[in-house]
Amino acid sequence: MLNILGIGRSGLHANQYKLDAVADEIANVNTDGYKAKKISFQELIVDQDTSVGTKAAITKTDFSQGILKDTGKRWDLAIEGSGFFGIEDDNGNMALTRNGAFTMTEAGILVDERGYGVVAEYLDGYQELDHGKVSLTADGELIVFEDGASRTVGRIPVFDVENPNALTHLGESWFLPHADAVVISSADEGTELGKIRSGFLEGSNSDLTKAMTEMIVAQRSYSLNSEALRSTDDLMRLVNDLKR
């Protein structure tokens, strides 16, 4: 009976983990650049053939592309294909994101919704842009129009890593590469990554219908494990009463 209690307890923990993940997915169904997590269950086995319960874990993040939404705002950017935008945090580390809700400050610096700078590479001494004269190509090139001519003054690179599922999720649609991760840039020779779409945002890839279905299944499973624990507790109380 103690084994049954352990199995029931592990089932409760696993399904609670699943419910937390599904709740997060439902809550972020309208979050730009959000990527859904895939949860799997694993059986806990000892002595090669004795089950002692189950556990749930995030096995991978679904990096499939969300629907691109036309916003009409020039500095709303979306990546059509693979890759991420780079964001520099307060410590100078680069985080990766698919949320391209950017704005150009009065100082000519491109920033995200929280005011962190978007990683960009500038040429000819440029460190800021006159946002009334600059445009962005699908390859991320920043083009400035001056005196009737145009010239490239920088680039917004698209980044990627060899194994996206090794990224650490920081929340707010941010992901952090591990220290030893190989980060690829669209600025590298021969690299083919996604194209940048100006005036668009990538929506969440969360499937609300699927998430609601998974929530119902997890709730039913949680309830069954609760009933198993309750029934086992009743039997143990009955046995104790008989001993008296």
Quickly describe the structure.
The protein is of the alpha+beta class and 244 residues long.
Overview of this protein structure:
With 244 residues, this protein is α+β, with helices and mostly antiparallel strands. The chain folds into two domains: 2-62 and 205-243, no CATH class; 68-202, no CATH class. It is 25% helix and 33% strand. The protein contains two helices and 19 strands. Strands 9-5-6-16-15 form a five-stranded antiparallel beta sheet, with no helix packed on it. Strand 5 and strand 6 form a beta hairpin. Helix 1 (2-27) packs antiparallel against helix 2. The longest helix is centred in the last third of the chain and has 36 residues, at 208-243. The protein is elongated, with a radius of gyration of 25 Å. The mean pLDDT is 85.
Report the uncertain regions: none
Helix fraction, binned, reads 25-40%
Taking all residues together, what is the mean pLDDT? 85
Count of beta strands: 19
Rg for CA atoms: 25 Å
**What would you call the quaternary organization?**
single chain
Q: Spell the H/E element sequence.
A: HEEEEEEEEEEEEEEEEEEEH
Overall shape = elongated
- Compute the separation of the termini in Å: 19 Å
Name the structural class.
alpha+beta
